[in-house]
């Protein structure tokens, strides 16, 4: 099956949504991987089906909107020449809070494969406030010819409920290292420094880290500032930093959002050791921030897996993160970073302290982190996995 585009949909957050997040970034990367693999993807739908409140009326409204969108798309595709109609439908991130009410209907009407990346089953939601969303997600996952499994936490439930004829293929989270500027290892990597010009092809970036005397270890955090899990992670991070004593560290925080005032208050006691740099949207500038850091730190409360952890490692920055959700799927424990027990500020502080004091280990982890991402978590590697899996079900580039 070849010819037309692959229809792409992300019901949690469209790839061109105005608000940055790991979900938006992964949607963008999947589009890029499909393009790299030769499938000419097009965004078919931007309907956001997310219901964070567990409100049945909201879910009923979203279901109706999704069904109407399916009818509209089927009619629209019917006006195209056969060679221009979608040859497959590809949905990213299906779960009970953001089901796909549209894709399965369109795929069935057109007689094309329905494909999901990062599908999650949650049987315990069958009778609760998200019962309708759960039903929609389950129906979509049941309809999928192929599911790309992006974290091993999802695999057991997907295996247990897998219908006959459905393929499950591992597609670990990845980053677009091809589009990041080249940055070598070492202190201040890729960041313009006094008396040293920026690397060729890069835009000079002022030193973003707080200035302190002596050999300060440069810590970096990149995360939205919003209530809930993100704020809980910031709270744990501040608590852990408070236990580092007089060790030589400085922290730059990249991010913004509605909880900025609370984050500012959390880090105010550290004075000039912490700099809140605000939101950075430019990928090249963000890459230089990662490359200029010695250690990326994030407690990762309830994190699905944490795109920022992969992005940091891609630039040779080892990480310390909480071992929660799918974080273990993006960090090589003890090799590219350290994972600590979930929500344990003491353990997190101990891990950071150990790496502050062991520069040789940091350097080994930095080199291993870059090798790991370039070798196993690159856009090109993901494109090959996607192309092989789609070809196996008859959808060829």
UniProtKB/TrEMBL annotation:
<dbReference type="Pfam" id="PF13692">
    <property type="entry name" value="Glyco_trans_1_4"/>
</dbReference>
<protein>
    <submittedName>
        <fullName>Glycosyltransferase involved in cell wall biosynthesis</fullName>
    </submittedName>
</protein>
<dbReference type="InterPro" id="IPR050194">
    <property type="entry name" value="Glycosyltransferase_grp1"/>
</dbReference>
<keyword id="KW-0808">Transferase</keyword>
<feature type="region of interest" description="Disordered">
    <location>
        <begin position="185"/>
        <end position="214"/>
    </location>
</feature>
<dbReference type="GO" id="GO:0016740">
    <property type="term" value="F:transferase activity"/>
</dbReference>
């Amino acid at each position: 099956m070849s010819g037309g585009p692959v229809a792409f949909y992300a019901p949690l957050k469209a790839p061109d949504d105005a608000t940055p997040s790991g979900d938006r970034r992964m949607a963008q990367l999947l589009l890029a991987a499909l393009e790299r693999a030769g499938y000419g993807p097009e965004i078919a739908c931007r309907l956001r089906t997310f219901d964070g409140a567990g409100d049945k009326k909201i879910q009923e409204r979203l279901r109706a909107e999704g069904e109407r969108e399916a009818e509209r798309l089927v009619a629209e595709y019917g006006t195209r020449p056969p060679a221009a109609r979608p040859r497959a439908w590809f949905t990213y991130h299906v779960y009970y809070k953001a089901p796909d009410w549209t894709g399965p209907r369109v795929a069935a009407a057109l007689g094309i494969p329905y494909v999901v990346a990062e599908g999650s089953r949650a049987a315990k939601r069958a009778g609760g406030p998200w019962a309708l969303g759960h039903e929609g997600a389950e129906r979509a996952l049941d309809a999928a010819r192929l599911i790309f499994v992006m974290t091993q936490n999802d695999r057991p439930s997907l295996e247990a409920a897998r219908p006959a004829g459905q393929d499950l293929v591992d597609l670990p989270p990845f980053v677009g290292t091809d589009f990041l500027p080249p940055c070598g290892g070492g202190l201040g990597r890729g960041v313009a420094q006094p008396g040293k010009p920026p690397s060729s092809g890069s835009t000079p970036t002022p030193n973003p880290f707080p200035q302190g005397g002596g050999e300060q270890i440069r810590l970096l955090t990149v995360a939205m500032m919003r209530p809930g899990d993100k704020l809980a992670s910031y709270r744990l991070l501040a608590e852990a930093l408070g236990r580092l004593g007089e060790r030589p560290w400085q922290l730059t925080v990249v991010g913004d959002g509605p909880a900025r005032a609370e984050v500012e208050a959390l880090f105010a006691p550290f004075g000039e050791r912490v700099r809140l740099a605000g939101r950075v949207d430019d990928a090249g500038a963000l890459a230089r921030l990662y490359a200029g850091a010695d250690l990326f730190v994030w407690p990762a409360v309830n994190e699905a897996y944490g795109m920022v952890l992969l992005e940091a490692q891609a630039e040779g920055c080892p990480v310390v993160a909480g071992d929660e959700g799918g974080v273990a799927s993006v960090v090589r424990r003890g090799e590219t970073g350290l994972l600590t027990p979930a929500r344990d500020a003491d353990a997190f502080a101990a891990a950071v302290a150990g790496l502050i004091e062991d520069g040789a280990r940091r350097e080994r982890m930095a080199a291993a982190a870059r090798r790991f991402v370039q070798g196993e978590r690159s856009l090109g590697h993901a494109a090959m996995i996607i192309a092989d899996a789609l070809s196996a079900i008859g959808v060829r580039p």
